[in-house]
Recover the amino acids of this structure.
């Protein structure tokens, strides 16, 4: 019986340290990862909703895109140092990605010409800014990085 009590007392500090590590280190990183996945999903699912869609589809697209943008922006502005280090290490630009998502909100439901590439550029920029551009060619990534560097080349909010 004494061995059980000693074992329980010995495990308590380890459990406490694991709880601290999860809440101060793991949870902020998981929040960034979930927001990143949600932003990528929103850009893919709703980034191309344009003229001709029904009003409820346009409103759903605007809502999903703006929620993803607000989530990224809130995480960027209020995240702890461990999440900032994680984003810097993996080359995530949450602030600019949220700005491009808000630009896509503005394009949702808009009647653009067929040769206008704003929606495709915005969606690709989200992928580049959140380091999810493995499906893109190196030439396309280079073009998108040049547009990211140019202030008015991408839709921004």
């Amino acid at each position: 019986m004494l061995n059980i009590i000693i074992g329980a007392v010995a495990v308590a500090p380890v459990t406490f340290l694991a709880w601290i590590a999860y809440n101060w280190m793991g949870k902020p990183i998981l929040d960034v990862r979930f927001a990143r996945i949600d932003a990528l999903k929103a850009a893919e699912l709703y980034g191309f909703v344009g003229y001709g869609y029904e009003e409820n589809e346009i409103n759903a697209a605007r809502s999903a895109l703006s929620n993803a943008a607000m989530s990224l922006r809130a995480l960027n502005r209020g995240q702890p140092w461990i999440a900032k280090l994680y984003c810097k290490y993996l080359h995530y630009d949450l602030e600019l990605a949220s700005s491009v998502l808000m630009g896509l909100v503005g394009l949702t439901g808009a009647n653009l010409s067929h040769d206008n590439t704003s929606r495709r550029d915005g969606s690709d920029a989200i992928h580049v800014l959140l380091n999810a551009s493995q499906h893109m060619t190196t030439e396309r990534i280079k073009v998108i990085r040049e547009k990211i560097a140019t202030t008015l080349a991408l839709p921004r909010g």
Summary: The two ends are 65 Å apart (CA to CA). The mean pLDDT is 87. Residues 28-149 form one domain. Residues 8 and 36 are 39 Å apart (CA to CA).
